[in-house]
Each structure stands twice: as C-alpha cells, then as structure tokens.
Design goal:
Blueprint (H helix, E strand, L loop, with lengths): L8 E5 L6 H12 L1 E5 L18 H6 L2 E2 L12 H17 L3 E6 L2 H9 L9 H26 L11 H14 L3 H6 L9 E7 L3 H17 L2 H10 L14 H8 L5 H26 L5 E2 L8 H7 L4
Parallel strand pairs: 1-4, 1-5, 2-3, 2-4, 5-6
Helix pairs in contact: 3-4, 5-6, 8-11, 9-10, 10-11
The protein binds one RNA strand of 83 nucleotides through helix 3, helix 4, helix 6, helix 7 and helix 11.
RNA sequence: GGAGGGGUGGGAGAGUGGCUAAAUCCAGCAGACUGUAAAUCUGCCCGCUUCGGCGUACGGUGGUUCGAAUCCACCCCCCUCCA
C-alpha cells in the first residue's frame, strides 16, 4: 500500500458536482494536507458561486491554493496552471505537508502527470491576428493555410476552429509547427504521487445533483454574481465568460433569454459538461481507482488500499 | 348534433406523390482531446447487419398510382368553436 507521507501528492479527480471538494477537504484535515485546485474555472476570482468554489469558511480551515487566484480579465491557460500548480505543490512539500490536488479539468491532471511540451508564448497581437484571419478567409481557407505549413494538422476535424487557430498562432509566434512542438518531450511536474482517485458517481445521481446544485447557486445569488461579471464588460471570448452557468445568466441579463430558459440551459450544459468529464476520466485516466462517492474521510483507507503503487 | 383543425420516430416538430428511414431541436449513448479545456470537435440514436446493406415504418383498414407519410374512402382517437 502506498504511504501517504508528507511530501507526497494525492490526485482527486471527478466531474462537476461529484463532491470532490468536500472529499479533498475531509482528506486534507485527516492527514494535515493542503489543497490545490485543478479546476479551470475555479481559479477565477469573479466566479465564486457559479464555479462552486469552497466557501471562505472552508478555505479558512486549511490552506487552499489557486482558488479564486486569477482575475477574470486574464486569459489563463493549462500551461500557466501547470506552472503555478507545480510551484504550489513544491511549496506545500517544502513545508512538510501533503499536497492534495482536486478538480475536474482532465487536461490539468494530464499536464501534472506527463507535462506539456514547451510551447511559445502567443502574444495578444498574434491571437488577434489569428481570429481576424479566420473571420476574413473562412474556415476552409484558414484550414488550408494551416495545412500548408503543418500538414499533420489534417488530423483536426475541419470544424474545429479552436485547434486550427491554435496551430496558426503557434506557427506565427515561433515559426515552429504545433506538430513539431507537441513532439517535444515533456516531463512530469510531480513525481511523488501517492494516490490517484476518480470520484465517479452513477450517471443519474450526478445529473440530479447538478440540477439541485444549480438551484442552490441561484438561491445563493448567482444572478448577482453574473451581473457583476457582466458589468466588467470583459472580452466575451475570455474563459470566465464561457463558464457554464455564467454564460447563460449573462445572456439572460442581456435580454436574450428568459431567466427560466437560462436556468434550463445552464442545467443542460452542465450535464453535457459532466458527461465530457466522465468520458475523459474513463478513457484518459482509465487505470485510476474509482469510487462512486466519498462518504467521509474514513474512506481514505479504502482508497489507499486500491491505489496503484506510486 | 354541427363547423373546423389535427394524429409522423423517446419528446417537440418539419415534410404534402419519387431525391424520405423521414429535416431540425431536445432527451439519450459513445468518442476525440498537449497551453480558451466548464473550451473545441466527432459519431450513433426503428430492428438486424460481415457496416455494403436487408427488413419493417408516418393512427387503422382498404383504394388510386409504376411509385404514398404525402391523393381518395371509411373507421378510430384528440383539440377548438357553434349548439
């Protein structure tokens, strides 16, 4: 059985509304750990209710890292997160504690375990140029341009605007093709993982939990949070603006849809999102042990007993 | 009793003679995923299938036609209005 010593790392992954935050907190208190957020939207300060971030009271119980740490105007990324997370984990270990990484962003866990290939920074100018170019020439011609310098990108589906733009940006930022960059070796950002676990609730229970939770978010003032975010008049293409729940409520505040429709859409989109997360975990973290639900910290004994040797 | 409208795949809802196993959306399922990842994208979704097809299908029955979800007749059911 792997020992969860100080200076080791525990990874807790799971879809939204699976109870991973509570699990992480319970475990952290039991073993004197600190929690690192691995959720792409919980990093944003502007999303407290809508990202279901731990409450101030919960955060006060022990140290949390990377929750609400980034301003919504920032276009944060998997790369930046992986660097920040590695730093936070190292800091936790330096202080002799266990790092518990909890979240629902599969790519972030992957970045932690396998690393990301070193890629060039893409300036705002190039990002803007890429978007404009795409709009100007259209998807098909844009794809042709990308394939001209990076033929391997033919593997992308023609409709995948985002990845085509990424390939274009990287090439114009560095002269190197994304294909070549992604072939560069990457190194794990943590090498002391003691336990990996996926919380994977039954589908129907998860969907039900999502509906209940969105109602709770509304009751807790989600609409006001969305209003405040809208008032910042940020670029609509920013990640914060795409948060499930926030996007729909903002559409309502903008007069595009009714509140009832916004709520129905938010629930639906959250369910779809959860399904995508489950697909990721099922296929990308297939070897991680699963639990259907986390009952309390005592479950940790079970988790440890079925975890692979780290 | 009279007048009109309507019955289409799990739901909503197009389609009004062949290009229709039947648009689209929803629900559901499966998948991809290296810096926007709560994003972006793909496939399946009547049954069987060696994935090329084959068989049944648009309330029911019968008919017109080379051919019908689409036209006709009758029947059944639903809705609105008049009584």
């Amino acid at each position: 059985m792997p020992a969860i010593n100080r200076k080791t790392t525990v990874l807790i992954a799971g879809p939204t509304a699976s109870g991973k935050s509570a699990a992480a907190l319970a475990l952290a208190e039991k073993i004197d750990g600190e929690i690192v957020n691995a959720d792409a939207l919980q990093v944003y300060r502007d999303l407290y209710i809508l990202s279901a971030r731990p409450s101030p009271a919960e955060e006060a119980r022990l140290r949390h890292h990377l929750y609400g740490a980034i301003d919504g105007e920032v276009r944060y990324s998997a790369g930046e997160w992986s660097r920040d997370a590695a730093r936070a984990i190292a800091d936790i270990h330096r202080r002799g504690k266990t790092a518990i990484v909890a979240g629902g962003t599969g790519l972030y866990f992957r970045a932690l375990e396998k690393g990301l290939s070193e890629a060039p920074e893409v300036s705002d100018e190039i990002r803007k140029a890429a978007a404009e170019r795409f709009e100007k020439v259209g998807a098909a011609a844009f794809r042709d341009e990308v394939l001209a310098f990076d033929p391997e990108m033919a593997r992308l589906k023609p409709a995948d605007r985002q990845r085509h733009i990424r390939a274009w940006e990287v090439f114009h930022a560095s002269g190197a093709t994304l294909s070549n960059i992604q072939r560069r070796p990457s190194a794990p950002l943590v090498d002391n993982i003691a336990v990996r676990i996926v919380i994977e609730p039954p589908r129907d229970a998860l969907y039900a939990a999502i509906d209940v939770r969105f109602d709770a978010m509304i009751a807790a003032g989600a609409l006001e949070e969305a209003r405040a975010l809208l008032a910042r008049a940020l670029d609509p293409s920013l990640p914060v603006m795409k948060a499930v729940g926030a996007a729909e409520l903002i559409a309502h505040l903008g007069g595009e849809i009714s509140l009832d429709d916004a709520i129905a859409l938010a629930r639906r989109n959250t369910r779809r999102f959860a399904k995508r997360q489950l697909t990721w975990f099922r296929n990308q973290t297939a070897l991680w042990p699963r639990v259907a639900a986390w009952r309390d910290a005592a479950d940790f004994a079970f988790v440890a007993s079925v975890s692979p040797q780290g």
